[in-house]
């Protein structure tokens, strides 16, 4: 049983708080003062019986859940530049995307009447939200009392960062590859949507496990990518984005270039806060630590897939309505004072998903490193 200790200062503080509140409603009288003293003693005794862990050890589940959701979008701002499908979730698991059957013909100076009536047959594509869970982590009871830093905040902060990073990488992959579901077959990113760098400068291959040299990216490659989208009537002014891995960014936009400074000045402060670093050749340019990889055959590799010597790093190009993202929420789990582990156990779960909005991946392209001869 917990030993109670009489603390005069705490009692005096409780009395002043209770008396001030009571005085507002009942005035300052001897009776109010005596009653306030009684309430102060009672509440002080009750609070002294509570373990500190009860008041201070909870992880404040809702705050952590909201914080993880905020971090997903703050650290991976590219998700904001996509179609939001949160309102189209079915049971927080499934999203259907209607596919237009296409437009009819337009005839100049039609001479044959009546015109043939057409019926548009629409289809759809579907994807499921993935469920991401962290390994349950134990914070031993001794660590909450003996360490000079808050180990729980440190451990959970690392788990938060990991789940945020994983969701971002898997979302990019989902935009480039659609898995099978029921009668819906898996579909891979078309080889015709993968272009190659053309720089004359040779650089060391930057994909994990890759060897040899590759052609550097140049600003001319951005112009080529623009022409690729325009030729397919997929250029949407002001809505075009490209995400470069750091190696591409350094090659195309060296820090000591006056041209680079000009491109950076084209960005407003509001756009910069959303992650846009510069604008060039009509592209809003973003960057993150990793974007995409393709193997020697041009197949997009999944996050964490084993690499090989012939792999190439790639940059992603898209317009906002070509891809979509759906977020199913975050749940934080806690089991404080677990009697079998002699400590507190925590874990997180998040649901999210995404895919290309068109079955043929229209409006999305990759720029991969070209191998040197």
Task: Describe this protein's structure.
The protein contains ten helices and 19 strands. The chain is of the alpha+beta class and 373 residues long. It folds into two domains: 8-50, no CATH class; 59-100 and 115-373. The strands form five sheets. Strands 9, 12, 13, 14, 15, 16 and 19 form a seven-stranded mixed sheet that branches. Strands 1, 5, 6, 17 and 18 form a five-stranded mixed sheet that branches. β2 and β3 form a beta hairpin. The longest helix has 26 residues, at 151-176.
What's this model, at a glance?
This protein has 373 residues and is α+β, with helices and mostly antiparallel strands. It has helices at 8-26, 30-49, 52-56, 61-75, 143-146, 151-176, 219-231, 246-252, 258-265, 269-273, and strands spanning 83-84, 89-90, 94-99, 123-128, 130-133, 137-140, 177-178, 187-188, 194-196, 202-204, 213-215, 240-244, 278-280, 283-287, 292-294, 312-319, 323-338, 343-356, 364-368. The strands form 5 sheets. Strands 9, 12, 13, 14, 15, 16 and 19 form a 7-stranded mixed sheet that branches. Strands 1, 5, 6, 17 and 18 form a 5-stranded mixed sheet that branches.
């Amino acid at each position: 049983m917990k030993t109670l200790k009489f603390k005069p200062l705490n009692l005096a503080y409780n009395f002043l708080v209770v008396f001030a509140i009571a005085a507002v409603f009942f005035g300052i009288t001897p009776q109010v003062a005596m009653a306030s003293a009684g309430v102060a003693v009672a509440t002080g005794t009750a609070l002294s019986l509570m373990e500190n862990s009860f008041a201070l050890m909870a992880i404040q589940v809702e705050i952590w859940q909201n914080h993880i959701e905020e971090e997903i979008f703050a650290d991976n701002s590219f998700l904001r530049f996509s179609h939001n499908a949160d309102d189209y979730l079915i049971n927080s698991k499934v999203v259907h995307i209607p596919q237009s059957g296409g437009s009819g013909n337009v005839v100049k100076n039609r001479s044959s009447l009546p015109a043939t009536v057409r019926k548009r047959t629409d289809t759809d594509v579907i994807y499921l939200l993935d469920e991401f869970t962290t390994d349950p982590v134990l914070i031993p009871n001794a660590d909450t009392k003996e360490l000079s830093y808050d180990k729980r905040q440190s451990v959970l902060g690392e788990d938060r960062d990991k789940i945020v990073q994983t969701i971002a990488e898997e979302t990019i992959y989902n935009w480039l590859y659609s898995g099978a579901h029921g009668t819906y077959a898996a579909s891979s990113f078309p080889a015709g949507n993968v272009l190659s760098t053309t720089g004359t400068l040779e650089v060391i291959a930057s994909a994990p496990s890759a060897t040899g040299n590759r052609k550097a990216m140049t600003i001319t490659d951005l112009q080529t990518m623009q022409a690729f989208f325009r030729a397919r009537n997929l250029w949407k002014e002001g809505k075009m984005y490209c995400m470069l891995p750091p190696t591409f960014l350094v090659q195309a936009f060296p820090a000591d270039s006056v041209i680079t400074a000009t491109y950076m000045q084209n960005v407003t402060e509001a756009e910069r806060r959303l992650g846009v670093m510069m604008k060039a050749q009509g592209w809003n340019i973003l960057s993150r630590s990793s974007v995409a990889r393709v193997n020697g055959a041009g197949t997009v590799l999944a996050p964490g897939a084993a690499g090989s010597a012939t792999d190439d790093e790639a940059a992603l190009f898209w317009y906002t309505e070509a891809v979509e993202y759906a977020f199913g929420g975050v749940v934080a789990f806690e089991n404080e004072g677990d009697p079998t582990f002699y400590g507190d156990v925590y874990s997180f779960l998040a649901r999210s998903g995404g895919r290309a909005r068109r079955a043929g991946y229209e409006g999305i392209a990759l720029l991969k490193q070209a191998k040197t001869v």
